[in-house]
Design brief:
The structure is a single chain. Helix content is 69%, strand content 0%. Helix 1 packs antiparallel against helix 2. The mean pLDDT is 86. By secondary structure, the chain is an all-alpha fold. It has one domain.
Length: 124
């Protein structure tokens, strides 16, 4: 067994015990401990299991992130940002002050000058 695999199994086990006993997250703690046991037994008895297990986890992570992106971020975009844009359009408000052609000779927003260095510490 490679040192990297041993470290991964140890980290899986430690994280599983932390989730299970310290944070009292029984389900996810048991899942992580189960993955640790599968990885340990697979690496001990099946040659090349570590590489295949890592490819499987990368595949799983890729698919889960794709599903989460489409199931969470898309509705949030349409449920939050679209109504805000519609309301701003109805009220004829433009927080970015976009207009074309501009009436001023420059697009810079004038700022009050403050001679102290405190204004540079908390800019927003």
């Amino acid at each position: 067994m490679k040192v990297r695999t041993i470290i991964q199994i140890a980290v899986f086990t430690i994280v599983g015990f932390i989730l299970l006993f310290w944070l009292k997250w029984t389900t996810i703690g048991l899942i992580v401990l189960g993955l640790s046991a599968v990885m340990l037994s697979g690496c001990l008895f099946i040659p090349g299991f570590s590489g295949r297990f890592e490819k499987f986890t990368q595949f799983l992570i890729e698919k889960v992130s794709l599903v989460l992106s489409w199931l969470l971020l898309t509705p949030i975009y349409y449920l939050i940002f679209t109504p805000i844009r519609i309301v701003n359009t109805i009220k004829k408000q433009d927080p970015m002050h976009r207009q074309f052609p501009i009436k001023e000779e420059s697009c810079w927003t004038p700022v009050q000058e403050n001679g102290t260095s405190d204004s540079y510490r908390k800019q927003f």
